[in-house]
Write a structure and sequence with these properties.
GO molecular function: DNA binding; DNA strand exchange activity
Structural class: mainly alpha
Radius of gyration: 25 Å
Protein name: Recombinase domain-containing protein
Keywords: Coiled coil
Oligomer: single chain
Order of helices and strands: HHEEHHHHH
Strand order of the largest sheet: 1-2
Number of helices: 7
Distance between the termini: 36 Å
Largest sheet: 2 strands, antiparallel
InterPro entries: DNA_bind_recomb_sf, DNA_bind_recombinase_dom
Number of strands: 2
Strand content: under 5%
Length: 175
């Protein structure tokens, strides 16, 4: 199953609420028909009734899917903690999260300005900034930060900056 972000779940919930409002409108139209208001042909009534049932089934199925995804997300949310806390995966293993948003933003800025991975590592080491394990920076550790989508999810950087960086990394790799 595809992974979904909270923003995607919230969007899906809004879509589900929209479907629910449509269902209420259909219900209102059907009630009017039953009461003899806005009388239409039997075939149109049957078609409206079929559409109403279809929307109701679709909304019910969507609600079940959303509830299952929400339960899964809530279970993950409790075990994923930032601010240098242990992040647990499904097997219970964990690692320290690098959470210095200032350093992460600086790495992205330096790379977008045209600095190479090695130059960024040298800059960070020259500033005596340590990695999450307290070591020195290398090209691969800088690259790991640049390609880590969790920086977007944790709102250290915006998605546009991330996409620009990934495109630059791919373009520079081809040269």
């Amino acid at each position: 199953m595809a992974r979904k972000t909270i923003k995607r779940l919230e969007t899906d919930l809004k879509n589900m609420e929209f479907l629910y409002k449509q269902e209420l409108e259909e219900n209102k139209r059907l009630r009017n028909l039953l009461e003899g208001k806005n009388v239409i042909a039997q075939s149109e009534y049957d078609l409206l009734l079929k559409d109403y049932e279809h929307m109701k089934d679709m909304r019910d199925n969507y609600k079940i899917l959303y509830d299952n995804l929400r339960i899964r997300y809530d279970g993950l949310k409790d075990s994923t903690v930032i601010n240098n806390q242990t992040i647990k995966n499904s097997r219970g293993a964990g690692r320290k999260a690098f959470d210095s948003s200032d350093v992460i933003k600086r790495i992205y800025e330096l790379y977008i300005q045209g600095n190479s991975l090695k130059e960024i590592a040298n800059t960070l080491n020259g500033s005596e900034i340590k990695t999450k394990r307290g070591g020195t920076w290398s090209k691969s550790s800088v690259r790991f930060i640049l390609l880590n989508y969790k920086n977007v999810e944790n709102e250290f950087i915006d998605e546009d900056t991330y996409n620009i960086t990934v495109k630059l990394l791919n373009d520079r790799k081809k040269k």
